[in-house]
Amino acid sequence: MASSTVKKSVRVQAEDRNKAILKAQKKWENEEVAKRLKRFPELKSEFVTSSGIPIKRLYTPADAAVNYLDDLSFPGEYPYTRGVDATGYRARQWTRRPITGFQSAEETNKRFRYLIKHGQTGLHFVFDMPTLTGYDSDHPMASGEVGLGGIAIDSLADFEALFKGIRLDEVSVSYSHWGPVILAMFLAVAEKQGVPFRKLRGTTQNDVLMYFHSCHFFDLPIKANMKHFADLVEFAARNMPEWYTVSISGYNCREGGCSAVQEIAFAFGDAIEYITVCLERGLKIDEFAHRFSFMLNAHIEFFEEICKCRAMRRMWARILRERFKSTNPRSWQLRFHTQTSGASLTAQQPLNNIVRGTVQALAGVLGGAQSLHVSCYDECYSIPSQQAAQVSLNTQNIIAYETNVASTIDPLGGSYFVENLTNQLEEEAWKLMGKIETQGGMLQAALSGWVQQEKADYVRRFQEDLRKKKRIIVGVNEFLSDETLPIDIFRVPEEFEKSKIAKLEKLRSSRDNDAVRAALGRLLEACRRGDNTIPATLQAVKTYATVGEIYHAMRQVYGDVTTQEIHTASVKV
Amino acid sequence: MNVKRKPRVLIGKIGLDGHTTGIYVVSKALSDAGFEVIFGGIRLTPGQVASTALQESVDLIGISSLSGAHMTVVKNLIKVLKEKHIDRVPIVIGGIIPPEDITKLKSMGVLDVFTPGTSTADIVARVKRAVDANAHEGRHA
């Protein structure tokens, strides 16, 4: 009784204060602002964020409607708006997690060992397109793509080369792929090293819906991938307690073109589908939700990005606690890796990208990221040169050690503008999530092509804004110059594909092919029965069955990707 | 009466590369500039590109490639176009193409290459020129 009276009188006080502020603000606008505008009209008729949220000339306490304890609270406490860690970066800085992946497992292994020698313990690696889409290096669809943009994996032999001399219990490994095949190879290496599964630390990106609607990576029908998603989560929940089973990647979604609000809503839309499929599997929410993580984009609109991180933490906490009735606070905490936007970088005047990366990385840090990667300045041309990789890493070190920005938690919390924008992003994102629900959820919205069309519409509007100069990008539509920078472009040697294929042929003729056939047969049966596919896939990879062969077995049960699914990438002209 | 039809271009991607932003933007720009755009989509085979080009009698084929596979993609495409006797149709390529490859692609028969930083206005103008030059010679698929 007493406390509600206190609350009420606080509210009345706030309302009175706001009235007084608004009255004074009106006067200020009519006098000072009007006088100034007469002499100097503003540069644009409207100022808006990437999400179309209007930005006002000035924010006051009247705009920042927050109830401190309910809406912001303390770091490490619900709803985590100000952060998930009670000491912020004061006890532990964010992790530097650069991406690595050259054409071959052997080359990448060399790079990993170099990084480990220099104190790096978090590895992130990426694969080439044939590996991602379930084809061997000698498949016609793989022609010309082997080893480009990532490591070419055909069999466990490549994985063994990848981790040669690296103990899996001494590093944390994250990788961009999904489903049972790569995880099984990882488990097989762990078995050979005598590392128990429960000691493995790392992340499977596993964001199968995002890969479908934003990357257009097609390996199996999406429904099979959703089933495999639950397989991986279930397996990890029982055997790999330290493993992050998904990194829900607003990042990739944003890179393909969308606003901050769309990034929030699409990422949470995907997350809700994943939670649903795991609950349908019979798992309890708190058996798995605490191992979900996120990967967010640090784009160029500084404040909107910071507010996006804050809004997402608050929304995730509420989704988990209120909608899914989670009772474990660990499940309510949104943890994220952030990467600065590669798509915001320009081919023109590439050194300017170092500045962009700095502003974006700062937004990531002020947004409270758990780990960070700064996209390299030569990103538009190639995978990074040694110099670009170094500048990228030192951008983080400068922010961490020189600027003092990491000494207090959520330093922008309480800014009238920041709290207002955080609220607005949240509100707009809930609205968009409502629209996704009316589309039948994110899976349906992706299968119907609705998500893809929304994104294409965004990039086309963006391009139109550039043409009309409603939006300026230095070196692209303003401040042009002819300077070019000679950039060393990393190239995969032409012979690589041939030698990879030769290696694959040698493997096929030297392994025990009866064992391979038997293991693939058992995998096919496991798929047919609807069993968890990970144990049977593990047995298959141990016989050196190839990625293509394993996928072939799965496609016999699930079918291949349908033309209709591939067609979701085609949007209206 | 010979009604002059809109110039027709086929836009798409060959192979596994899933980067679509470029084709979304370019297809819209060309369509706004009065082209009829056949949006071929992604994951095409060279054979599919050739048959669509033939069926739709396109005036130009535009292929986007951002994965680095452009040399193989173009080599395979030109081979199929030759087999089907439609190698008269001009081909343009857009994407991340290193400078030294541009010369090679052109010597293989590619008419124009659009690299990062090319404006849509520039792409529209160059595609228009390519199609007009070819129309003089009565070439389409």
What characteristics describe this protein?
heterodimer, A: 573 residues, alpha/beta, TIM Barrel, five-stranded parallel beta sheet, 23 helices, B: 141 residues, 21% strand
Describe, in plain words, how this protein is organized in 3D.
- The complex is a heterodimer of chains A (573) and B (141).
- With 573 residues, chain A is an alpha/beta fold.
- Chain A has a domain at 69-467: Methylmalonyl-CoA mutase (TIM Barrel, Alpha-Beta Barrel).
- In chain A, 53% of the residues lie in helices and 6% in strands.
- Chain A contains 23 helices and 10 strands.
- Chain A has helices at residues 2-39, 68-72, 105-117, 129-133, 156-162, 180-193, 208-215, 222-239, 250-255, 260-280, 285-288, 302-323, 329-332, 352-366, 386-401, 416-438, 442-447, 450-467, 495-510, 513-529, 534-542, 547-558, 563-567; strands spanning 95-96, 99-100, 122-125, 172-175, 201-204, 243-244, 246-249, 292-298, 336-340, 371-373.
- Chain A has a 5-stranded parallel beta sheet. In chain A, strands 2-3-4-5-6 form a 5-stranded parallel beta sheet.
- In chain A, helix 6 (180-193) crosses helix 21.
- Chain A is globular, with a radius of gyration of 25 Å.
- With 141 residues, chain B is of the alpha/beta class.
- Chain B has one domain (8-135): Rossmann fold (3-Layer(aba) Sandwich).
- In chain B, 52% of the residues are buried.
- The two termini of chain B are 22 Å apart.
- Chain B contains 5 helices and 5 strands.
- Chain B has a 5-stranded parallel beta sheet with strand order 2-1-3-4-5, with helices on both faces.
- The model of chain B has no long low-confidence stretch (mean pLDDT 92).
- The longest helix of chain B is centred in the last third of the chain and has 17 residues, at 120-136.
- Chain A binds chain B through residues 129-130, 132-133, 135, 141-145, 148-149, 215-218, 256-257, 343, 346-348, 380-382, 456, 459-460, 463, 467, 476-477, 489, 491-492, 566-567, 569-571, 573, and chain B through 15-18, 20-21, 24-25, 27-29, 31, 37, 39-43, 67-69, 71-73, 76, 96, 98, 115-117, 119-121.
